[in-house]
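WARN  no MSA supplied for this record, continuing single-sequence
INFO  ligand: adenosine-5'-triphosphate
INFO  echoing inputs
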Amino acid sequence: MADNEDTTRRGTMEEIVALCKRRGFIFPSSEIYGGLSSAWDYGPLGVELKNRLERFWWREMTQLHDGIVGLDASILMHPKVWEASGHVESFADLMVEDTVTNERFRWDHLSDEQRESKTSPAGNPLSEPKAFNLMFDTHLGPVKDTGSVVYLRPETAQGIYVNFKNVVQTSRVRIPFGIAQVGKAFRNEIVTKNFVFRTCEFEQMEMQYFVHPSEDEKWFEFWKEQRMSYYSKLGIRPERLRFQQHGPDELAHYAKDAYDIEFEFPFGWRELEGIHNRTDFDLRRHSEFSGKDLRYLDDTNNERYLPYIIETSAGLTRSVLMALSDAYEDQEVGENDRRVVLKFHPEIAPVTVGVFPLVKKDGLSELAQEIERKLRRRFSTFYDQSGAIGRRYRRQDEIGTPFCLTIDYETKENQTVTLRFRDSMEQIRVPVSELSNRLEEEIENYTRS
Ligand code: ATP
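INFO  complex generated
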């Protein structure tokens, strides 16, 4: 739905951050100590949203796709992994400093004009660009010397590559096949800003698809299309999504072709996910550095080869921000009244059904609780009996609950309840006995209005 300028508008970043704090989605990390720059904690609603996004991705990528299996590799890995991958040598951003304010900038984030004139956004002279490695290092064991250095992984992908042989030998996968993984990654980012968009600790959802080298372009196109359609299944507005191809000077050292899927955040178009043709770079390097033969044997024709890898790499924590900023609407409802509503897809909404007794007395609370207890086995529910019913609806709108049920005197007479829809605010009567199935259907057939 396009924003209607008169009646509905998008949330600003300030509004989204404030709502996240107020309603328990996302808090600043260690806030009672003044917070830690750009680190965030997911509160009761935020963790539900993040977990649901993760499950949606996992189901889409593993359960609903042939030939994709899962993995959960450790964060700390053998330090040689990062030499082989090229991260020790070249996982660096060029950094410059405003020589007056000492503010730091990524060279590639400055405008052409600022780079040419070597001036900061404040108009001050900039220092010479310096390479800055983004990997965090630490030490394994009690002795802190060069021999004990390990890195916090800056991407989850390498855990997949080093397990390629294990997976081939232990599962019945045949090329083409994929390995999916969700997990934490760490980068010592020079500039962290825009809430959870860019942080030093974040989560990635990555799927590495292993293909015959002669078929890389076909699978690259396939995954580009699949990944874009995933976002429409999630209900993200199509006009806020686009592809952006990496130019030859932007391509990573391992990539033959790369596209970003970008989303229009309140602060502009930014990368959400990268789709990369990594060729056989990673497996070749790990073969060389480990001395192990990582070639795949095709038992139909005895061909032995290093597969090419098509990578789809999305940020989970960044997707949380995408979901929040796509869902947030400040909407006029009736004359002189407005509401804030998060129009999440029901599959990712932290609460699916709000259940309310119209009043606390005359046995309506007990009846509502009984209905809520039955529904909670299949849905995430929230019971609320305090305040006027209109207020209770608004509180659920603000956290994105797609359906609310009100139990009233009629329920006692004819076993029906009011089902109220978040997006349209329409209300209908539904028999209690049909509630579960009706809600399942509504979730299945949901389109945002
Ligand atoms: P950028 O150019 O923005 O630094 P990148 O191109 O290095 O990002 P990738 O290495 O392709 O990013 O990582 C894949 C995905 O992981 C990104 O599309 C993004 O969603 C997520 N991601 C990467 N870095 C961060 C970060 N610092 N904070 C949150 N998410 C991140």
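The first strand starts at residue 8 and ends at 10.
INFO  checksum written, moving to next record
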